[in-house]
């Protein structure tokens, strides 16, 4: 009899990946605010400090810019830091080191150094933390050549992509939606990697492609169930990496279904949906489109505090269902 | 000369630090490198004027003793981070002016293969982790390099060079604090040339001396006359010793002056001609060092002339090497953005 596949939460999967990476390689260490005895603001590092000690699970002062710079400098000189931002919003405090230094160092120095740093960003809304603790800033960093930006949507991918990130010689930015941390899913034991730069087809379908990122993958899957009952056969593509984007998988899917809906939590304009849409418009898949491309993204507002307003500021499953119906049946 | 030698013998123990600590050959090489820095920058400036190179550059002419004094106690394995005004640091840390000129000319033989230019010049093989176009950008990076040294037990010491302008950036304060709490082998060297672009330290900085900031981070703050090689070297030795012993960071403020403007477009409207002339005529670091060497009988006029000539030849050869080197191919534009996977 087959054993039930082991399930871990998304945050446990990340913690396990970090432990495996630290066990395997003495250069790997963790840095961040309150990641030691406190266990991290979202308990992702948990008790790792007890196992690896405070030198490898390093609490930093509340100094995002300086801390990110220390991680960059350590990475340039032989270490493999994994730097946790307490909230992805605090990337704004460290943009100098991320954008000017980490991303460009290898290029500016003609390939003489590499910057194998991993930065983890707890992102997204839904926790009642209001405007400065709920943003989705992944597209900001996705705009910067030299960075790789990933958004694992499942515990399986969170572990496998983090292990791929630690092994990667270039700076990797991981955006982890906070509402996913408690989500459980099957996670293999031991070391495995999920490639950076490869999208995953979560559900095959014939009528419509939904390209979604992070938590929106799950909402898209939920929507697809409802839509299936109505006879609309949805293909869900989990983008997983926004830079470098897996164009081939998206193009092939759109050629198959002839309809594209992009769903992402970040502010709609100038975002990932614009990039995916433009990429399709520029590709051979354009000729296959039977309907205009539709984007569902966050509202053009900061994330509000009131829970009902907060929900209405980002796409929800009914919004996806409605948009999909419109696309397939021409009711817009 | 005879009188000078006699003086040197009699007062050996009272001589300034550098003359007790270094051999005659080492001291002559310091003079050679100070000339190399100055002539390199003059050569770069001249090449720019003649339209041979484009972009911009920030010259450190007048600050040569600072770069040399700080780098004297370092080994090849020790590391530095540098600034937009970093040519002196690069040469002091052992770079070849041929490859520096090639970088200025944007050639593939340059240290950054033509991708970085003046503001990002680096020589990783000699421990120079790079100049930096962002004021204070290199300071946290130096702390990170020092963290690597401590964790990997390499025994390396890291120097972070920056200017007076950087002392009002948040990165400076965050980095000093972390270096202090973790007792890292890093030395913060503020080359205070009096002006952050056009704004004087008096107008920009609440403390009289930037070294006073060290107290806030429980580390020694040392002020040196940055135009006197021996003074700078003495402070650097003490700080390096302290860092290697695991006692943590030091902040050195090296008070100096740049003769040229902030960059190529500077009209010098924020300072007087008299002030500039005073520094050039009375406090030039190379002249001061030469005079000491002569006074202590370590070099004569012929020796100085030989050094100048050797430097002239080296600079000329460097410029010729750069001119003759190939430019990168446009097809290679995206090279080095990411690590090429085998």
From TrEMBL, chain A:
* Pfam families per the UniProt record, alphabetical: Transket_pyr (PF02779), Transketolase_C (PF02780)
Segments forming domain Transketolase-like pyrimidine-binding: 8-183
KW Oxidoreductase (keyword) present: yes
Q: Which SMART domains match?
A: Transket_pyr
Q: What is its EC number?
A: 1.2.4.-
Cited SUPFAM superfamilies: Thiamin diphosphate-binding fold (THDP-binding), TK C-terminal domain-like
Q: Which InterPro entries match?
A: THDP-binding, Transketo_C/PFOR_II, Transketolase-like_Pyr-bd, Transketolase_C
Gene Ontology terms, MF aspect = oxidoreductase activity
Oxidoreductase keyword on record: yes
Arranged from A to Z, the UniProt key words for this protein are: Oxidoreductase, Thiamine pyrophosphate
Domain of life of the source:
Bacteria
Which cofactors are required for activity?
thiamine diphosphate
The record, for PANTHER family, names: PYRUVATE DEHYDROGENASE E1 COMPONENT BETA SUBUNIT, PYRUVATE DEHYDROGENASE E1 COMPONENT SUBUNIT BETA
What is the protein's given name?
A: Alpha-ketoacid dehydrogenase subunit beta
TrEMBL record, chain B:
**One Pfam match:** E1_dh
Keyword Kinase listed? no
Determine the domain of life of the protein's source: Bacteria
Q: Which residues form a coiled coil?
A: none
Q: Where is the Dehydrogenase E1 component domain?
A: 32-330
Describe the reaction catalysed, as an equation. N(6)-[(R)-lipoyl]-L-lysyl-[protein] + pyruvate + H(+) = N(6)-[(R)-S(8)-acetyldihydrolipoyl]-L-lysyl-[protein] + CO2
Q: Which cofactor does it need?
A: thiamine diphosphate
Keywords annotated in UniProt: Oxidoreductase, Thiamine pyrophosphate
Instruction: Decide whether keyword Oxidoreductase is in the record.
Output: yes
**Gene3D superfamilies cross-referenced by the UniProt entry:** 3.40.50.970
Quote the function comment for this protein.
Answer: The pyruvate dehydrogenase complex catalyzes the overall conversion of pyruvate to acetyl-CoA and CO(2). It contains multiple copies of three enzymatic components: pyruvate dehydrogenase (E1), dihydrolipoamide acetyltransferase (E2) and lipoamide dehydrogenase (E3).
Q: Which PANTHER family match?
A: PYRUVATE DEHYDROGENASE E1 COMPONENT SUBUNIT ALPHA, PYRUVATE DEHYDROGENASE E1 COMPONENT, ALPHA SUBUNIT BACTERIAL AND ORGANELLAR
- The name of this protein is Thiamine pyrophosphate-dependent dehydrogenase E1 component subunit alpha
Species per Swiss-Prot/TrEMBL record: Mesorhizobium marinum
């Amino acid at each position: 009899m087959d054993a039930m596949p082991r399930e871990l939460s998304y945050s446990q999967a990340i913690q396990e990946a970090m432990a495996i990476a630290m066990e395997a390689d003495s250069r790997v260490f963790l840095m961040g605010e309150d990641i030691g005895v406190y266990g991290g603001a979202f308990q992702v590092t948990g008790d790792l400090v007890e196992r690896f000690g405070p030198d490898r699970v390093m609490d930093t002062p509340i100094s995002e810019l300086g801390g990110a710079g220390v991680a960059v400098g350590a990475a340039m000189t032989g270490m493999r830091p994994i730097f946790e931002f307490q909230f992805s919003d605090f990337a704004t405090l460290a943009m100098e080191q991320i954008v000017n230094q980490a991303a460009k160092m290898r290029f500016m120095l003609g390939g003489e150094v590499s910057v194998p740093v991993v930065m983890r960003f707890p992102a997204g809304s839904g926790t009642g933390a209001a405007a400065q603790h709920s943003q989705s800033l992944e597209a900001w960093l996705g705009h910067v050549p030299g960075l790789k930006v990933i958004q694992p949507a499942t515990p399986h991918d969170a572990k496998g992509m983090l292990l791929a990130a630690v092994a990667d010689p270039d700076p990797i930015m991981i955006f982890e939606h906070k509402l996913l941390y408690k989500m459980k899913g099957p996670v293999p034991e031991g070391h495995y990697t999920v490639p950076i730069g490869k999208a995953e087809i979560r559900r095959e379908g014939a009528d419509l492609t939904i390209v979604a990122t992070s938590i929106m993958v799950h909402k898209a899957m939920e929507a697809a169930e409802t839509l299936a009952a109505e006879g609309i056969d949805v293909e869900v593509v989990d983008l997983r990496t926004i830079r470098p984007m897996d164009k081939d998988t998206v193009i092939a899917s759109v050629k198959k279904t002839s309809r594209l809906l992009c769903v992402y939590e970040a502010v709609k304009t100038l975002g990932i949906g614009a990039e995916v849409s433009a990429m399709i418009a520029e590709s051979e898949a354009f000729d296959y489109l039977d309907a205009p491309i539709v984007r569902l993204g966050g509202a053009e507002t900061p994330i509000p505090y009131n829970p009902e307003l907060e929900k209405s500021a980002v796409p929800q499953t009914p919004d996806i269902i409605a948009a999909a119906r419109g696309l397939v049946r021409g009711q817009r | 000369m005879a009188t000078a030698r006699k003086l040197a013998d009699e007062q050996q123990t009272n001589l300034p630090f550098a003359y007790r600590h270094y051999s005659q050959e080492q001291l002559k090489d310091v003079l050679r490198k100070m000339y190399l820095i100055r002539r390199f920058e003059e050569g770069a400036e001249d090449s720019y004027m003649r339209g041979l190179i484009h972009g911009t550059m920030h010259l450190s002419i007048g600050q040569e003793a600072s770069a040399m004094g700080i780098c004297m106690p370092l080994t090849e394995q020790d590391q530095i981070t540098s600034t937009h005004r970093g040519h002196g640091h690069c040469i002091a840390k052992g770079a070849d002016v041929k490859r520096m000129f090639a970088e200025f000319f944007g050639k593939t033989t340059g240290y950054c293969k033509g991708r970085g230019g003046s503001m990002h010049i680096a020589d990783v093989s000699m421990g120079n982790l790079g100049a930096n176009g962002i004021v204070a950008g290199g300071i946290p990076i130096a702390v990170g390099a020092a963290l690597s040294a401590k964790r990997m037990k390499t025994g390396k010491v890291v120097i972070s060079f920056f200017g007076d302008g950087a002392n009002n950036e948040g990165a400076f304060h965050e980095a000093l604090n972390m270096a202090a709490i973790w007792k890292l082998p890093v030395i913060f060297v503020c080359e205070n040339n009096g002006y952050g672009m056009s704004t004087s330290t008096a107008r920009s900085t609440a403390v009289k001396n930037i070294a006073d900031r060290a107290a806030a981070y429980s580390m020694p703050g040392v002020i040196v006359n940055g135009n006197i090689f021996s003074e700078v070297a003495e402070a650097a030795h003490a700080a390096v010793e302290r860092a290697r012993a695991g006692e943590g960071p030091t902040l050195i403020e090296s008070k100096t002056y740049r003769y040229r403007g902030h960059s190529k477009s500077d009209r010098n409207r924020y300072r007087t001609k008299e002030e500039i002339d005073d520094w050039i005529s009375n406090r030039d670091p190379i002249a001061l060092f030469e005079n000491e060497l002569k006074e202590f009988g370590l070099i004569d006029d012929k020796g100085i002339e030989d050094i100048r000539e050797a430097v002239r030849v080296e600079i000329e050869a460097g410029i010729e090497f750069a001119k003759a080197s190939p430019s990168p191919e446009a097809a290679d534009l995206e090279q080095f953005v990411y690590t090429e996977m085998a």
